[in-house]
Amino acid sequence: MVIKGKFSRRAPPPKIKLPRLMNPFIGSIAALKKRPRQQEAIDLLYEVANQVAPLMQYYGLKVKMLQEMYPKNDNLLGLNINHGSKIQLRLRRAGEENSFLSMDELIGTMLHELVHNTRGPHDQVFFAKLDEYFDKKMELESKGITTIWGKGEKLGGDRLTPAQIRQARLTKLDKKFQGGVHRLGGNDDPSMKGKTLQELVREATIRRIEVQKWCHDPDVGDVPNDDELEVVMKQDYDRALNKKRSQSAEPLREEDHKRPDKGVKRQESESSQQGGKTPEIEVIDLTSDD
């Protein structure tokens, strides 16, 4: 007797094409496996990493892993675990896993989480540092510093303007992801036109209060397990850096390269093992919508 077996013909996993990563301060990047449009999620994570690279170099910030998350809590936008051991970002809109947040929103969340590398509570010190990060990012970009190697430089040695470099990267992304980082009082936000500085400050204060309202412990399932993630390791920088040193690349100027917080002792990560025991993960941040 012949029994016909049931065979499942599962589609092979999509081949992920890695974008060029120009941020040696992030150890690895991971996107969720079981969500649609995984390639676009990877592209977004790489673009976020590349855009904050000069800022991370300036402040001496490091992140072991940058991950995608899709939490059950609709207001949860990001997490920083163990002071930079992991930073997790919500890429997709709540209830619309096929729709991604704008690049403006992702960069804003990333800067928020980077502040938590050195500051946990959402207090006056935290928001002062967050404003400083926004201002410094805009300052570096205004000086043409868009990579860790300086003005308008690429790994291939071609010299491009900051606008050309940014456009070349963003053309690979969907139009709805494109955008810039905006600051309080900027003229590029129509909602801010005609408002006084006092009104803008008051609105910013209200937004900050709302952020603190939503800062609570994550729900079960908010933090993805390792088996839910497609981990993509960062590219090997030795060859790229050696090639770059052999060229006449213009590095960051000393005044741009200098770290202002050199004398400040940073909070030590509690992720180190003590006595052979693995410590519990400490979630120090939840970023939420206004």
Secondary structure layout:
Elements: E1 26-32, H1 38-51, H2 53-59, E2 63-69, E3 76-81, E4 86-90, E5 92-93, E6 96-100, H3 103-115, H4 124-142, E7 145-147, E8 150-151, H5 162-170, H6 197-213, E9 229-233, H7 237-245, H8 254-257, E10 287-288
Parallel strand pairs: 1-2, 2-4
Antiparallel strand pairs: 1-9, 3-4, 3-10, 5-6, 7-8
Helix pairs in contact: 3-4
Region (Disordered): 237-290
GO cellular component, one term: nucleus
Biased composition (Basic and acidic residues): 251-269
Describe the structure.
It contains eight helices and ten strands. Residues 153-157, 175-188, 231-242 and 261-283 have low confidence and may be disordered. It has 290 residues and is α+β, with helices and mostly antiparallel strands. The strands form three sheets. Strands 9-1-2-4-3-10 form a six-stranded mixed beta sheet. It has a two-stranded antiparallel ribbon with strand order 5-6. The protein is globular. Strand 5 (92-93) and strand 6 form a beta hairpin. Helix 3 (103-115) packs across helix 4 (124-142). 32% of the residues lie in helices and 15% in strands. It has one domain (26-248, 280-288). It comes from Cyberlindnera fabianii (Yeast). Residues 17-210 form the WLM domain. InterPro entries: WLM_dom (IPR013536), WSS1-like_metalloprotease (IPR053000). Residues 237-290 are annotated as: Disordered. GO terms for molecular function: metallopeptidase activity.
